[in-house]
Amino acid sequence: MTDTAIGAAEYIDFVAREYLAGYIDGGGAAVKLLAVGDDATRAQLTNEIRELDDGFAIVEVNAADTRIHLVDQLFTAIARQLDWVALASAVVRSALERTAFPAPDSDADIDLAAVARHHDVDAAELYRSVRRALEQIVLRDTELSHEFRVAMLRLCQERLGRGDVSLTERETVIGWLCGERLPAAALRGVSLQSKVARHNARPLLVSLTRWLRIAGRRGLVLHLDLDRLAVVRRPPPGLRDGHYYSKAATLDAYEMLRQLIDATDEFDGLFVAATLPAQLVQDDARGLPSYTALQLRVIDEVRDRRRANPYATMVRIGGRSQEGIA
């Protein structure tokens, strides 16, 4: 980790220029740990990340609100912040373009009958062509997990408006993605066999990053706020707010980060900014030194104490840097 801090706005400008443009939107992935010195800097960094957008899906997961050490909880927290219907609509529009009959407008709702009239073709034949194109896009993409393909096909079929998938079934699929408790019969009705859990959440997360790009998004920017990991003792019952982490749960959170770092080759267009209090960088009890597998991946043994390295996996974020970023 560098000893010289980089300003929050300065660093996010660097990320947008050097990572998001060209690398992440080209299908790359990167995970950064950002050591933040105070609450004001943390709030500024959060605002800077929220304002990135520019074609990316921006998602924030706070360890105080989500059991961030559980990958299934992480996935469902991300899923609840995405507009799955809009993503499915974008893929249906892509299928229409593939069949050479693009939708004439950009409204969220797609009226196949109107598209057929616009192109002077038979509506039933257009439906068959679009369905085949969707199956090519979704079902034959083996980089998407099987369960994810099934779920996305159901959402796309509902967008066609031909009655293959009802609004109730669409909400069942979205509820499944978001981790809601659903009747087994309802899941079987949309060909989903098991809930999102630790055994399938990681493939679903990998599939999600690819799906966003299939739907026309440039990628996913995931902000993980790990400030709560630094809390050693839970406050009295009346003052508690959200989740608190034991030493074991904290180590599990570090292991989840380690897995994200090691899996960057699997993700398609993902930038993870994990912010944590600066004291966790050197805290032997609850900080990075307590989990060597992660510490060795983010701490640079050789570094310039006078100049910040924004390309490092671990970066110290402060109010203003002593050195500018070229």
Which sequence of SSEs, written as H and E, runs from N to C?
Answer: EHEHEHHHHHHHHEHEHE
> What does the radius of gyration come to?
22 Å
Strand content is: 5-15%
* Overall CATH class of the largest domain: Alpha Beta
- Distance from N terminus to C terminus (CA atoms, Å) equals 19 Å
Percent helix, as a range, is: 40-55%
Question: Total number of β-strand segments?
Answer: 6
**Rounded mean pLDDT score:** 91
Chain oligomer state? single chain
| Helix/strand class | alpha/beta
Task: Give the strand order of the largest sheet, numbering strands 1, 2, ... along the chain.
Answer: 1-6-2-5-4-3
Low-confidence stretches: 320-324
Q: What form results from the Cα inertia axes?
A: globular
Largest sheet: 6 strands, parallel
Q: Please give the CATH architecture of the largest domain.
A: 3-Layer(aba) Sandwich
Counting DSSP H or I runs of 4 or more residues, the number of helices is 12
- Would you give the CATH topology of the largest domain? Rossmann fold
**How many separate domains make up the residues?**
2
List its traits:
alpha/beta; Rossmann fold; single chain; disordered C terminus; six-stranded parallel beta sheet
